[in-house]
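Annex B.
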Amino acid sequence: MQPIGHAPAISSSDSWLALSIGNSRLHWAQFTGNDLQHTWNTPHFSATDAQQCLASLTPNAPLYIASVVPQQSQLWQAYPSAHVITLEQVLLQGLYPTLGIDRALAVWGAIDTVGSPVLLIDAGTALTLTGAAGDRLVGGAILPGLRLQFQSLNQATAALPDMGTANLTVQHPLPPRWAANTADAIASGILYTLLAGLQAFVDDWWQQFPDSPVMLRGGDSDRLHSYLTAYAPALARQITIEPNLIFWGMRKVRGERLKDEG
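Type III pantothenate kinase: predicted structure tokens.
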């Protein structure tokens, strides 16, 4: 198992792996039955590294794959015990064909965790909001993620600096809203607009579904929650960070598959 990170070797006959292929990284989980044992992240793999990884797996150990990057998912589908998860396996009504499998699985995992209705905020490369009520998708929104918003200004302009990582390491305080230098002006424009937008979406959701839980996941979830705590502490206190929602959704897919096979 060393080629895919720091997971212990699979020894139980009831052990299986989950692989969520995101835009920036591979997200792994090892389960024994329904119990999560370990999670870790790796960069995207080359074809050679993927072949070496697959050769290291315990024979017949199931590998469940959910991917939003077709070029990466192709590297893993040759594994004999690979199960590629599709939208049809997520038992929610109202899913549309272009909905990302990561969003569908994460909101299904959120329902399994806290019930329904539920609103999920995913702070990854893209920042998405996905709401569900009962067993139906209500809908959502997509915008560039926190890092992508900072990076895009540098990439699309001649004079603005690269703020992709420098300002994102700052937890508190928020930058001055009325900034007196370019770096703070970029941080102010992006962060205050983003935070106000999130608050507006959550408030609208609560108008429709009062007392609905709000869940937060994704690579920038801790950072975003920290900014929300500074901007709107009452809102931040009502948001729960849960990094493993996609894995809970994948676990449900596996459970339904085993039920059908049994």
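The mean pLDDT is 87. Strands lie at 15-21, 26-32, 35-42, 63-67, 82-84, 118-123, 126-133, 136-144, 214-217, 239-241. Further annotation is deferred to the next reporting cycle.
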